[in-house]
What does this fold into?
Amino acid sequence: HSVGSDIYVVDRAQGLMLIDNDSIHLLNSDEIFLNNEITCMLPNSKGIIVGTTNEGLYLWDGSFLKPWQKEINTYLIEHNLFSGAYLNGDNYAFGSISNGVFICDSNGNILQHLNRIRGLQNNTILAIFQDRRNNLWLGLDNGIDYLEISSPLTMLNHNFNIESAYATIIHNNILYVGTNQGLFGARIEDADATSMKLPVFTLIKGTEGQVWSLKVVDNTLLCGHNYGCFQVEGFNARQIIDIRGFWSFLEPPVLEDIIIVGTYSGLVRLKKQNSSWYFLDEIEGFRESSRDMFLDKTNHIWVSHGYKGLFRLKMSEDFSKVVDVLFLYNEAGLPAALPYNIQTVSGDMYITTAEGVFKYNYTDSKFIAHEALNGLFQHKGFIDKIHQDQNGNLWYYTENYLGVMRLLEDGTFRDIIAPFSRINNFLLPAFQNIFIADPYNIFIGTQNGLAHYHPGIINDYNVADPVYFKEINFYSHSQSRSYLYDEALFNDSVVVSKVPFSLNSVQFKFTSTAFENPEALMFSHRLKGFDTKWSDWNALNFKEYTNLSDGDYTFEVKALNAFGVESTVSVFQFSIDPPFFRSKMAYSIYIVMFLLIIAGNIYFVRRRMMKIREKEKFRHEKKLARREQIFKEQSELSEKEIIQLRNERLKTEMNHKNKELANATLHLIQKNKTLTSLKNDLGKLLRNLPSDNTEKQNVNNLLKKVNKDLRNEKNWELFNNYFDDVHQDFITRMKEKHQELSPKELRLCAYLRMNLSTKEIAPLMNISIRGVEISRYRLRKKLQIEHDTNLTDYLISY
It folds into this structure.
């Protein structure tokens, strides 16, 4: 049993235990848990309510277990509790084995009791579930029942002996309901579904037949009946007069103890004597059916006739006869379309017609459109009936539905129609009736009984349930095979990429979980790629398309619930492949065949051309061979000339580079000799100058410049460029093979490869001849050259 966030386990050997993470703890070992079947555990403000099959309900406060001594417990012990559920609003629902379901509040007071007599299929309630709209589902012994406990409407129907209700009133704590079978009455405390006793709606003897109206006049209840007029006292009725068809009652303020009653055939007067009403006489001068009447301030009686028009009757002072009759139809501001219905709002008379609401202007003696009421009821069509309650609310009937214009504190009205959508199809056409006992008890007559409306129960009617696909079946009329989707699909786009053309007919079956008045549920759908617009709303929950063309399709469906709210659109996407002769494979075959035809034609044409070409080829073969031999000989001569010219060009370039290298080397030698001689002269001059001579610094600076120029590496880089061009990257190859050689030794290798003498190398390296000899010796050792091998020859051949 789950109670809040806790999970309890009842073990018949140990008792009540609580699951706590990965462990279980024993809480109570009372005999109730050991000897009884625990059917439910429900939260309560004082602890936990524990339900047992045979001993009813107990309250466990965490320490002690004691019987829950409330009204509900007596009945659950008597009828054996089997199931229970905690309901929103801090209420409970308990299912019994033998007497249906009980709904109570947190204090155990019974709010409602339903069993087989009151509409359930079975008295055994095996399971209870409350859905998201706070309604109850009951799992019975042989079926499922659905209870709209959150609905503000309650039906008193044939289970309460009530059929079509034409009039309702409460008098002396008795609820009277006038039906097509007679007048029924029940005491207020017995007249609802919350009572534990069966409501006693008793037929009042003598009133069998059609009841049209009920009216309390001078604390006396009068009943207008098909067979006359009755005075009702308690559960007894006395017939006043047997004239057929009493419609309605008027109380002229100028008359004492006399009322006017409209009948099938005119008007009659009733008089009260000693607390009883008696027939006085028939009013002369008017013999038309007088169902709807209004007495204005001038004591004229207005009578509307559904098939003729409107009558204004001028009465005598004692109302004993009609002095003058004014018949109005399609005149005095009234439209041509009937009917003209009389309505009373704030004590004034209004006429509702197919073209709006009109009010009589006594000054101009004509009817004029009433702007306020026409604006209030704009776009609602013909208003059949308006009833104003004590709070100023306007209850109205159109040709299709019931609504109320609820008066707000700021003087405006709020239109409310959704709560009554469940009974709109059962309203009595032309005989709509409503009785408002108080702001929380409104009785509405319907063909299926008396509906009780409680405005205090508020639901959110703007929530719409989605549409589900029950089944999607692709099939073919010419083949027995089909492609069936039998999974419930909800609001997800499902793409069937390849449905073969042979299955180009499809049937969609869909539904919605709108269980409140499902008979009023309607669907609209369209198939994108086939339909141009949405279908009209209808109750069919399937749609079939046959012989669809190939292409992409999207089926969309939406629902309209009983409260006029549209659901979201549910979508199913699919694609039908083209037939084989228009498929991609067929087009590929067509292309291949076309190409084969073209290739065949080309082949035969080319074959003929080849024969002609072979003859031409054979004829020119010798000529081409001869020309080829001539061309070959000429090509060989040309190639030899080109090679010779290329060699001469390379030799010329090499000579030129050698000359440039030689010139650069000679220039470098001459420059270094000059700089060395200048350096020596400046050194001598510097030594001969006295230390205090001012020119000594200048000579010293000049000597530094000479030394700097002798060490200038740019000359060496220029020499390297020329040298590499002539001697094919000699320096690079030496570096790769002898990485231990210093830059100075590499320079010496280059000079030796050029076959320069020691005297020529000395100025280039800015060292003495002896220094060159030493460098040559060291270089020989690093190159590991034998003593009998000439160093210069080795480097030249490298």
Summary: The radius of gyration is 59 Å.
